[in-house]
Amino acid sequence: MAMNPMQKKARTSFLLGMLLTLVITGIIIGLLIAQLSKIKKEEAAIQYREVYVLSTDVTSGDNINLKGTFQKVRADYAPNNAITKENMATYINDDATAKIAVRKGTVLTTDMVNSEGVETTKDVRLQEYNMVILPSQLEEGESVDIRLRLPSGEDYIVLSKKHIEQTNSDTIWIKVAEQEILTMSNAIVEAYIMEGSLLYATPYVDAGMQGASTPTYIAKQEVINLMNANPNITHIAMNELSQRYSEKAREQRANINKAIDGYSENALTNIETKQGEEIEKRQAARKQYVEGLAY
Predict the structure, then answer these.
(1) For 9-67, what is each residue's pLDDT tens digit?
(2) E strands along 66-171, which residues?
(3) Which residue of 40, 131, 162, 181 could cross-link 174, Cys pair, CB 3.0 to 4.6 Å?
């Protein structure tokens, strides 16, 4: 049966439409395949990185090198300044602290961490002090200056930015180097001599961002001589001590000596009384600790 021109034209149009649809569909499928191939190549090119995320919330000044503070994870994407296994040793050391408050699960970056802590030298010890007046809300992990206030109102920084390793109602445990131990011992004795003096701790507001203050308390000359002859004191500490013992510092030391001279008659009695109280506190704390181990 012959096909009339109209039918032939309609059929031709239909076939052309089908062909065009197939061509367009083929192009779309080709583009999709090309795009998927590109995505797969990009995924294959990704360098997976091992980064560190916080496993607990931290506040400014908190030590972030403690067990359980962070964990290593494998990440597809991470900030360019993320702390990785390659640079971890540079930023996460014994003295590394958080500059800002950071939430659990956050990837650690170099600008979150203060790693400018002092190297732990061979003369560093964990020292216990129970004669320092503590702030009512002091907590472990905070940083403090330990200061000596004389009855005259003069106020000196004895130790600067010490991290509170442990604390209870009247005792703190801090890491101190040999020259700091001697300086602190001198300050304790002089605080005992001078009735009305105060050896106390002041916390940093934002320890992660605030640098350490400069100590202004100078031990008496006999202690300085002992430091100079002490083989346990590092050269770095001795250089710092020499720089601190300037003419102005000697004038400050003269003021302290003058204040102490006013208590010369009662000095020994005051020292014996205060040291007796210190020993009693330590004995009581030790007894409580040992009894606790029995359970």
Answers:
(1) 667 777 777 777 888 888 888 888 888 877 776 655 555 678 888 888 888 778 777 66
(2) 70-75, 97-98, 113-114, 125-129, 143-149, 155-163, 166-167
(3) 162
